[in-house]
Amino acid sequence: METLELNGSAEEGDALFKINCVGCHGITARGLVGPDLHSITQRLNDREIIKQVTGGLTPPMPSFDIDPVNMSNLLKYLHSLK
Ligand code: HEC
């Protein structure tokens, strides 16, 4: 999977998160409608997170049509959350 070969930018990922995810996961990813995402990278591996974001398997979370660079940035951001 191309995403996993990229070394994303947490800063870019943070910006993407603020545009696409905060409505449900909260401005600091501490959770609202959707769960707290701190330590998510300890529970799910990168492939599972990519599937979660692009799959649309758990409504109401929508599927995101996100390119590998942006997905890699998002992963880097999620890894930066402790
Ligand atoms: C419309 C609301 C909504 C939006 C927007 C949304 N999510 Fe979610 N998300 C949810 C809900 C609700 C769940 C819990 C789904 C379930 O397992 O039942 C979830 C689950 C998750 C999970 C898995 C959490 C776990 O504990 O297993 C991840 C990772 C995640 N979201 C990341 C994101 C990211 C990254 C974005 C932005 C690209 C995003 N979400 C946008 C509502 C949303």
Please give a structural write-up:
The longest helix is centred in the C-terminal third of the chain and has 13 residues, at 68-80. The protein has one domain: Cytochrome c-like domain (Cytochrome Bc1 Complex, Chain D, domain 2), CATH 1.10.760. It has helices spanning 10-20, 22-25, 40-43, 46-55, 68-80. By secondary structure, it is mainly alpha-helical. It is built from five helices and no strands. Helix 1 (10-20) packs across helix 5. Heme C binds at residues 20-21, 23-25, 33-35, 37, 40, 44, 49, 52-53, 58, 60-62, 64, 74.
Give a brief description.
This protein has 82 residues and is an all-alpha fold. The protein has helices at residues 10-20, 22-25, 40-43, 46-55, 68-80. It has one domain: Orthogonal Bundle (Cytochrome Bc1 Complex, Chain D, domain 2).
Structural class, from secondary structure content?
Answer: mainly alpha
Number of DSSP helical runs: 5
Q: Mind telling me which CATH architecture this is?
A: Orthogonal Bundle
User: Main beta sheet: strand number and arrangement?
Assistant: none
Helix content: 40-55%
Written as H for each helix and E for each strand, in order along the chain, the element string is HHHHH
Tally of discrete structural domains: 1
Radius of gyration: 11 Å
Average pLDDT confidence is 96
Classified in CATH, the superfamily is: Cytochrome c-like domain
Strand content range: under 5%
**Poorly predicted runs of 5 or more residues:** none
CATH hierarchy class name? Mainly Alpha
Counting copies of identical and different chains, the oligomeric state is single chain
From the N-terminal CA to the C-terminal CA, the straight-line distance is 25 Å
Q: Name the hetero compounds present.
A: heme C
Q: Could you please say which CATH topology applies here? A: Cytochrome Bc1 Complex, Chain D, domain 2
